[in-house]
C-alpha cells in the first residue's frame, strides 16, 4: 500500500537561542535554554528547571530527518505553550511573540514544503494581539495558537471576541492548547497537571466558546482543539443535560444546545486509545479530526499516525484524518507541498 500523505497539526518548536528577556525587561519568569551538552538543552524558568529537550525541539534539519523516518510530510509548527507569556507586561509579551513568530516564519520560508506556521499573540491585550495577528498573516503564517484561558479570562470573555472576529476576517485558523492548568497547586504529584489538568483545560476552552456564543456569532471561524478535545467528548452528555435542566445557569449568553456545535470545530487525534478515536470521529464527524502528535514531547504520539493507520478505516477515511482535514482547517492545498 502506498503511504498516505500526512500532516501533523500539533507540533512545538523553540528557537535555538532565546535572548535573556529577564535582562531585557527587568523582571523574571521567562524561559531560556541552557545548552548544557551537545544536541540537548534544559528549559529554565529563571533558575528553575522546567524540562529537558533535544535538538529536534529547535533544529529544522533534525525535524525533517525524523519526519522522513516517521512518514510525516508536513508539520504545523507552534511555540511551546509555556512561551505564551500572557502574564507579562503587554508590550513585553508582544516583543516575545514577535521574536517567536519571526523564528517560525523563517523556518517555514526555508522549508515551505515541509512546514506550516502558527503564531502567538499577546492575547491579554486585544489591540496588540490584533496588531500581531495582522503581522502573522503578512509573515505567511496560517493562524495562531492560543491558550485554553488568558490569565483570569476564559475564552468567552467579551474582550477576546474582536481577536476571534479578526481571525475569521483574515481566514487565520486558531489552535487552542491547554496551559497553566487549573488546580495545579493540588496536583503536585504524579504529573497530574498534565494527566488531569490538561484534559480539563481543553474542555473548559470548548465549553467557554460554545456557551459564550463564539461559534454562533462566527460560523466561519476555524478552530482546532488539542488532545482530542480533552475531557469534552466524554462529558458532552453531561454538558447537554446541564444546559437542558439549568438554562438559567448555562444558556445565559447562548440559547443553542451545545450538541448542535459538534462538527463546527476540529479536534486533533491525540487520544492514545482506539475506542476513543473511534468515538470522537463518530461524534464530530470524519471531516473534523486531524492528526496531531504533540511532537517532540513524550506525552504525544511517538509514532505519528500509528493510531489512525491501525484503525479499520478505508484509505479514503484515513486520508481525511491524516491530511485532508488539516488542509481544510488551514485553508491550504496539497499541491503546495508535493
Detailed description of the structure:
- It is built from twelve helices and eleven strands.
- The protein is an alpha/beta fold and 338 residues long.
- It has one domain: Metal-dependent hydrolases (TIM Barrel).
- The strands form two sheets. An eight-stranded parallel beta sheet has the order 1-5-6-7-8-9-10-11. It has a three-stranded antiparallel beta sheet with strand order 2-3-4, with no helix packed on it.
- Helix 4 links the parallel strand 6 (115-119) and strand 7.
- Helix 3 runs parallel beside helix 4 and helix 4 packs parallel to helix 5.
- It starts with 6 loop residues before the first strand and ends in an 8-residue tail after the last helix.
- The model has no long low-confidence stretch (mean pLDDT 97).
Question: How are the SSEs placed, and which strands pair?
Answer:
Elements: E1 7-13, H1 21-25, E2 31-37, E3 40-45, E4 48-54, H2 60-70, E5 74-79, H3 90-110, E6 115-119, H4 126-139, E7 143-147, H5 161-170, E8 173-177, H6 192-211, H7 214-217, E9 223-225, H8 232-245, H9 247-250, E10 266-268, H10 274-284, E11 289-290, H11 306-309, H12 315-330
Helix pairs in contact: 3-4, 4-5
Summary keywords:
338 residues, TIM Barrel, 11 strands, globular
Low-confidence stretches: none
- The N- and C-terminal alpha carbons lie at a distance of 19 Å
Helix content: 25-40%
Corresponding CATH architecture? Alpha-Beta Barrel
CATH topology: TIM Barrel
Strand content: 15-25%
Order of helices and strands: EHEEEHEHEHEHEHHEHHEHEHH
Number of helices: 12
- Our Rg estimate from Cα atoms comes to 19 Å
- Please give the oligomerization state of what you see: single chain
Strand neighbour order, sheet with most strands: 1-5-6-7-8-9-10-11
Mind telling me the CATH superfamily name?
Metal-dependent hydrolases
Largest sheet: 8 strands, parallel
Number of domains: 1
Structural class: alpha/beta
Q: What is the number of beta strands?
A: 11
| Large-scale geometry | globular
Supply the CATH class: Alpha Beta
Instruction: Average the pLDDT over all residues and give the rounded result.
Output: 97
